[in-house]
Amino acid sequence: MGIEHGYAVSIQWTGNRGEGTATYRSYGRDHRILAAGKAHEIEGSSDRTFRGDAERWNPEELVIAALSQCHLLSYLHVAASSGLVVVDYRDEASGTLEQEGEGGRLIEATLRPRVTLAAHHSDEDARRAAHLHERASELCFIANSVSFPVGHEPITLIAGAQEAPRL
Question: Residue 113, SS3?
């Protein structure tokens, strides 16, 4: 049996416009996401498609963000363990929700990490760095928990080199 870690969050609905859920259109989808010890809350809503506030985070975005964040942290770990010095990491992640009647599910996500290695690294290091995304994906708790495929389209650069992607 593995080691277990617990996590707890609180959700507070803030969308009561005075009528509660009297009708589908009478209530707001706004809510706050809080956790003990966190200095900042997350302002959430549903996707605008579902009558939500587009300026707030929706659950679908939070799942994609969690995947991207988990991959980042797993990748930094495997890079450091492999002797590769990452000096910048950015991701433009996306996902697709398939609506089925009143429900639905996320059917895929794609992470697009753009990793920059320190200037002293070689092209061979860049190739090794690109392949480390596979190991990071294996280690990512969130990717291991979802039931849809998570694709990766990494770009690896070396600081100070031409901006042409390296593997």
Answer: strand
